Amino acid sequence: MTFRGSEPPAWVPERWEDLGDAPSVRADGVPMYRRRPRGRTDEPDLPPGRPGRVVTVLREIAVVLVWGLFIAFVAKHLLVRGFVIPSDAMEPTLMTGDRVFVNVLDSTLRSADRGDVIVFEDTQGWLPPADEPASVGDWVVDGLAFLGVTVDDSDNHVVKRVIGVGGDRVTCCDARGRIVVNDVALNETGVYLSDSEAPSDIAFDVIVPENHYFVLGDRRSSSGDSRFYLPEEKAFVSKDDVVGTAFVVTLPVSRMGPLGDQHAVFDEVPDRTDTSGGGWW
Known about the structure:
GO molecular function, one term: serine-type endopeptidase activity
Largest sheet: 8 strands, antiparallel
Distance between the termini: 116 Å
Number of domains: 1
CATH class: Mainly Beta
Order of helices and strands: HEEHEHEEEEEEEEEE
Structural class: alpha+beta
Number of strands: 13
Catalytic activity: Cleavage of hydrophobic, N-terminal signal or leader sequences from secreted and periplasmic proteins
Helix content: 10-25%
EC number: 3.4.21.89
CATH architecture: Ribbon
Main location: membrane
CATH superfamily: Umud Fragment, subunit A
CATH topology: Umud Fragment, subunit A
């Protein structure tokens, strides 16, 4: 290092680190760069009371989880809900153990149509009581199902097919053993009834009350449905109890797919204008 003048300055730094902060621009206009002080790391100094990086990450994860649960809850109660089929009463349309999605919004915007496969809450005691009291594990599973995180396999829901709507007269059976709705015989065999399944082995003649449905399982020989609770009013499912309309099988993979449109069976059935009464004809 050289110096101008006769004598060097009284103090000469041996290392750059001994210098203080240098100006960003020299006197002659040439820019200079500030040095990084010794011992400085890439991590900025956190002011007192500010949470560390770990706390910040955990907080962000918690926010994501809360939003995820909220979205799942809204989707379940307003859009789509999952269910597990517990029995063979809807075979061959739905098999035991099938996972299905139910359109919840559909039941909010409109009434069910003849031919719809609906899931409804059992508020009238169709199902037998549970054999064992609910455990803590059951409560956890039910809670997750309520939030929409898992499919609902609770034992207080029923899945059946709508055969008659409010005002319909539904009878069994004509001379060929077919169910009749508003004087029109239904050709169900080969559509959602297997060839070996009779439409019904129980005779009935009813008028469906307004805002209610007459429902049957697709496997009539093993389905506990509206027929078994006549002539009581509990034979008819209230519109208010309907959760939604099943529209797709999601599991198992071998059966994955839409249920298909099976409403053609009811295409010729007219609507009835006389909706008074309800019960036996």
